[in-house]
Amino acid sequence: MTVLAIDQGTSATKALVVTDEGAVLAEAESPVTAGPTPDGGIEQDPGQLLSSVLDAGRRAVAAAGARIDAIGFANQGETVLAWDRATGTPLGPAISWQDRRATSVCAELDARAGALNALSGLPLDPYFAAPKMAWLRRRIGRRGVVTTTDSWLLHQIAGAYVTDVTTASRTMLLDLDHRVWSGEACDAFGLDLDALPQIVGCDEIIGETAAFGATTVISGLCVDQQAALVGQRCLDVADAKCTYGTGAFLLANTGTDAVRSTGGLASSVAWAVAGSFAYCLDGQVYTAGEALAWLRRWGLLSGAEDLDRIAGSVPDAGTVNVVPALCGLGAPWWRPDALALIDGIGLGTEPAHVVRATIEGIAAQVALLVRAVEGDLGRALRVLKVDGGLTRSALLVQTQADLLQVPVEVAPSAHATAFGVAALASVGAGRAAGLHDAVRVATPVAIHEPRISRAHADQRLARFGDAVTRLIGPDRATPGTHPS
């Protein structure tokens, strides 16, 4: 069986043609952009998103030269748009998951934050879809529908009006325990429950499309990070992965328990497949690759390929601290108003110190997320599996292992999301009985063991925590709390 796996991301849409044995017959990538707005938002062009899906998918299929038996589709998760269901026409730009303009909506609902968190598993934050949907609804009135981008793209490609359960669990509108839309949450955000798309499993056939050539079923759907969790074969409780791309996204499998975090993490559906389901805890570093892009714009880094050479030219970050909060701080602080911090610069500071401190800032945030996961699960992680473009940096991965104090395994491919959604599509098309059958075991290309002591790691994490406190203030630095 051959699957076209499409990963529609923030900066590009990637398409892979994958066989049952896990061989990649062809791949293609089509770039997309996310641009800032005068009022501080971050938006994307829906037409560009659709064109990128069609372009990447068609080129991958053409290059593979093989019959495609099924299609899997992964999406950004929290990016939303308004559109006309009758015509399919967008009513404006897509509001990116990075957009923070819905902070005002969250502030109005602060008194209900605890109840919404208990219901949906998600902290009240403009990162998630529902606040952005409510903000957008106020801008456009009652016209059209407001959904996550997957629903619009699937409608354009296959005529369906659906979203999968993992994407629905990223909205704040899902009753997490029962995996259905919540009338209570919809009322809180002023959204119409009846206008929301149908929730489907991750392995359901939702229709057919001839958009990529011969008519083919779409049988696998998932939000991108959960798809990567599947692709990394994190199928058992306490298995965890982190994907380093535009941001860095940590997910840990919690099995059939929808754990409510006490450490400021989000709880979501990991997958619903073959009549079974699993949940996960997750946390986010909003700017990882985006932080390195910022360094390039400022001339501190010429390109990603120079990251290790430049950062490795100094033995450590010296006195420099970087909190790369260019789009606010996510878990465990949930401070959408936070801005990036660079401090500790002296006469002896070189650009390389700032680059290295940025790497350490990304790794420190992930390490603190892992500690929160371990607190919620009541057990330590044995290993962290990592994927994504930034894992080409051996220095970043080694820094991660040092601060985590556990081995870090680097996936042999940067395309864990595509492999995960291909496995889901394989189950949906009846080729595999379940995920353990569909997901291939992949040997890591590198395993990084910690090279520093736990005491040294604790010291470095405490120093980063102090920098966060200087950034957002001592009264607001407690993880999991929200400003009034």
Keywords:
single chain, 484 residues, alpha+beta, Nucleotidyltransferase, domain 5, seven-stranded mixed sheet, globular
Short summary of the structure?
The chain has 484 residues and is α+β, with helices and mostly antiparallel strands.
Describe the structure.
With 484 residues, the protein is α+β, with helices and mostly antiparallel strands. It folds into 2 domains: 2-232, Nucleotidyltransferase, domain 5 (2-Layer Sandwich), CATH 3.30.420; 280-410 and 452-476, ATPase, nucleotide binding domain (Nucleotidyltransferase, domain 5), CATH 3.30.420. The chain is built from 15 helices and 24 strands. It has helices spanning 46-64, 103-108, 113-120, 129-140, 149-158, 165-168, 183-189, 224-231, 289-297, 307-311, 351-377, 394-404, 416-428, 435-438, 454-472; strands at residues 2-8, 12-19, 24-31, 35-36, 42-44, 70-75, 80-83, 94-95, 145-148, 162-164, 174-175, 180-181, 198-200, 207-209, 216-223, 240-244, 248-255, 266-273, 276-285, 321-323, 341-343, 384-387, 408-410, 446-448. A 7-stranded mixed β-sheet has the order 18-19-17-16-22-23-24. The chain has a 6-stranded mixed β-sheet with strand order 3-2-1-6-15-14. The longest helix is centred in the last third of the chain and has 27 residues, at 351-377. It is globular, with a radius of gyration of 21 Å. Residues 480-484 have low confidence and may be disordered.
